[in-house]
Amino acid sequence: MPPIIRIDHLSKQYGSGTRALDDVSLEIQPGEILALLGPNGAGKTTLISIICGLVVPTGGTVRVGGHDIRTDWRAARKLIGLVPQEIALEPFEKVLDTVRFTRGLYGEPPDDAWLEQVLRSLALWDKRDARTRELSGGMKRRVLIAKALSHRPKVLFLDEPTAGVDVHLRREMWQVVRGLRASGVTIILTTHYLEEAEDMADRIGVIDKGRLLLVRPKAELMGEFGRKRLVVELDAPLAALPEGLPEEVAAGLTLEAGGHRLVFDYDARAERTGIGRLLAELNARGIGLRDVATTQSSLEDVFMSLLEQGAEGAQLGGDAA
């Protein structure tokens, strides 16, 4: 199946000399959820803005549904819905009217049954006759999502869609997103809530300083860059780490919680993790154990590690498709 979005060697340099994007290539498949992660100023919004036709690239090409965003822009944009970071709504317009107006901008005929379905899914139907200035920040953000869905796009961009939204409404929004993906809509999101990306995304892209460091399936990324941690609760506290431990054990071992807990970081993919050796060494020294548990690195741990290490020189290469 051909990609719904294909980006080839995309770059953007502003007149000030700032390079917002640097040779970005990426393919996005129909019906997937791709999360773009990166610090502020990394280039996430610039990338989305170029695909959506809001910013003109310096070089490279973007095709949406086979349509070039510059030479066949009308057909390309009709496939796209965008929920921007900024809340920009006409304050005196009623909710239903502003969603109708957006649908009309795409040349679509009236379809109030579809708009009712969208508004109900976002818990906005009861507010359909309210003026947008009367809504809370969270409600206004849901109106932006309704506007983006008004013309039934094939691709939906969510640029920090849950910023300023409470936990309950955030969960409701992600239920809507799951339903959209199930219907075949491709979702590209940026978020600072890494637990959302970890829960929702099929693939994770990490962007920093305008370069796409990598794009990998979430499970593969967690397996490759994530580490596991063994937590050992002790019967009695230790004043210091045991002396004379072999290097394979000592390298990943720390003493925490006032000497009551040993923490051992290890690579689960390694042929020898060192766990057996650690437990044998503790037993040989007569150190009693109260409990043993393992934890997996979170996406936040992986993300921070990638940024700190510059992804250890990882480039996009064949992992983009």
Automatic annotation (TrEMBL):
Keywords: ATP-binding, Nucleotide-binding, Transport. The keyword ATP-binding applies. SUPFAM superfamilies: P-loop containing nucleoside triphosphate hydrolases (SSF52540). Pfam families: ABC_tran. Residues 5-234 form the ABC transporter domain. The keyword Transport applies. It comes from the Bacteria. One of its GO terms (molecular function) is ATP binding. This is Multidrug ABC transporter ATP-binding protein. It comes from Paracoccus sphaerophysae.
